[in-house]
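Internal tracking record. Fields below are filled automatically when a chain is submitted to the structure queue. Please do not edit lines marked as system-generated. If the sequence contains nonstandard residues, flag them in the REMARKS field before resubmitting.
Queue: standard
Priority: normal
Entity type: single polypeptide chain
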Amino acid sequence: MSAPVNMSGGGFGTFWMLFGQFGPTMTIEQLRDAYFPGNKLKTMANKHSAGLLPARTGDVYDTRDVAVWWDAQRVRGAS
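SYSTEM-GENERATED OUTPUT FOLLOWS
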């Protein structure tokens, strides 16, 4: 999945795309399927423990946090 970067804050951004597909929250399986389809759940758990994924509330990720995290990844990768 290649989410668009929306640095201007307007228009159809990453959050709205994710919200339309997943709703207000995402599970770790949904996050994996969207951004790391080749990874195992153990790898995802390790990424989470290492702080490489967005913050989690209970067992789910807030779609807003995922969008901010993804946009930051895309901006870092473009530098």
